[in-house]
Amino acid sequence: MQGTIDANRPDSYAAANRDIIRVLLRPSVGWLALFLMSTAAMIYGGWCWYQQLTWGMGVANVTHPNMWGIYIVTFVFWVGIGHAGTLISAILFLVRSRWRTGVYRASEAMTIFAVMTALLFPVLHLGRAWQVYWFFPYPNQRYLWMNFKSPLMWDVFAISTYFTVSAVFFYVGLVPDIAIVRDHSKGLLRKLYGLLALGWRGTGQQWHHYMGAYGFFAALAAPLVLSVHSVVSWDFAMAITAGWHSTIFPPYFVAGAIYSGCAMVITLLLPMTYAFKWHDYVNMWHFEQLAKMCLLTSGILTYAYGMEYFIGWYSQNPFEWAIFSWRATGEYAWAFWIMVFCNCIAPLAWYPRSWRTNPWILFGVSILVNIGMWFERFNIVVSSLAHNFDPATWWYYMPSPIEWGVMLGSFGWFGFWFLLFLQVLPAVAIAEIKEMIAAPVKGSLEAA
Amino acid sequence: MSTPVKSGSVTRVKGIYAHLDCMLTGIEKLKAEGLTGFQVLSPLPRHEILEAVYEGRPSPVRWWTLTGGVTGITIGFLLTSLTAIQWPMINPGGKPNVPLPPYAVIMFECTILLGALFTGMGMMVHTGLPGFWLDKALQDPRVSDDKFGIVFLRASEKDVERIQSILRASGAIEVTSGDDTVYEVPNA
Questions:
Q1: Average pLDDT over residues A286-310
Q2: Which of A25, A109, A313, B173 has its CA 20 to 30 A from that of A65?
Q3: Across residues B150-178, what is the average pLDDT?
Q4: Residue B23 in contact with partner chain A when CB distance is under 8 A
Q5: Residue A428: is its pLDDT beyond 80?
Q6: Is the Cβ–Cβ distance between A182 and A190 less than 8 Å?
Q7: Under an 8 A CB cutoff, do B45 and A207 touch?
Q8: Domain boundaries along the sequence of chain B
């Protein structure tokens, strides 16, 4: 039995239902092209990983002293991308920011899929991927537990907690909207959406406890926004490696994560809004707020970049000064200056209001920010390891084709899930959009 | 979860509203007449409705959150410290075997994780989800669009007329009772 979605119910709140669910399960040519490209990239990444599993880690250029390479660069990049969703859905919910409503659902989905992508990299980087369960504490006959004093263990707990809490928060937010899709579907689809909606009916009892729980989810997720990338930064800052051992890292990483996450929200949602003609729900006002958020965090990052150099010079630590001056002038200077241009200079285009409300400039600069933030992590991870304390180990690391392929595959994996989400679930929170629409009243009550 | 109506002594009564203010008037009139025990239906969480029905009473879900958080921080501390004691050789830099600062990270993560999972469980318990077995009178797809509703699942036969007249007087666009309260899904 083939199901269909009937999006032709009339009436006022119903218009929001109609507009948002009408795009479901109606793939356009553009969507199909992007989906096929993502799937192809994902399959190619999988083939590269298969090569690595077959022939060993030698097919990747990670070797002593540059053991982390672009697997960890891309891991940190995706964790950073995963920040904006929970920032927008949890923190902006707690401060009752009105602009979150239109963009938070798609941002949350982006978070879930970005963290899913990030979680691939520790496994890929492990080499012996079948021993991934060693990451987690489990009783064993040798009484050998992991070292909880290690920041790598903190990271396992931080990211798995972040993923679990974000996923639960995302699904809880979706339940009333899936119920709407269920009520507009028939056949097999009605049954499938009915199962996903968990029998939601919009009773007062359900809304009362739902809203109580939602506030607590937001309150619990909010500190995670700040803690997750702080913990990721401790992977670096707890080491004595020059260029990493710095107390500025947690706020610097958190600001960078919010910056890259908000830029990615612009990159993903701007085309989506135009493709689905959702200007009544997501419009330039939302994108302007996101651009302002990027401007703020870009300023914090630029300050952090400058302060790293100042402390390197002012501390008179020769190793610190050596690595920072080498980053800007050595073999990896090209990566450093790409980072500076994309993260510090390009976003200045968003200062004039007329420019930051121009969709082409918004989109173009958001792409540059995404590129710049990947290079920031490349700059931190690769340059410090390539130019460590012992000059005998200095080495110019460049990723192998297999590593590039795996990285490309990660973008395909992310795109695959995000595009699937756009076709299957409401990408704008319908029940919350209704809160922004004037309630139907006969006259004795003020409109909302 | 409500019990399906079987006996003749009680019956369902349901009013569907097109306007929020009319339903709020209906709720107030029912309460003034001492007719409670009804469920409301709404397409969105309007604070006026929740205020009228629950009168500011907070959801007990908060106790689930607290229980989860306390359980989480306890598990975080026990997991880190007991495992360190069981294999006490890893002792970098002469630091104590059970140091609080590094373990605080794990304790924090466990607090948030179990706090969120318990909140989810509490929400499921109190909202009656999964609600596949909800009384059919509460399953009205018009509520997904823009209609509001008041439903008595077990109204006493002697109160039925009084409830119906209050619902009609407050502006309900449809008032039904008995088996008629079940709205047949048009496109199912």
A1: 95
A2: A313
A3: 90
A4: no
A5: yes
A6: yes
A7: yes
A8: 10-56+131-181, 61-127
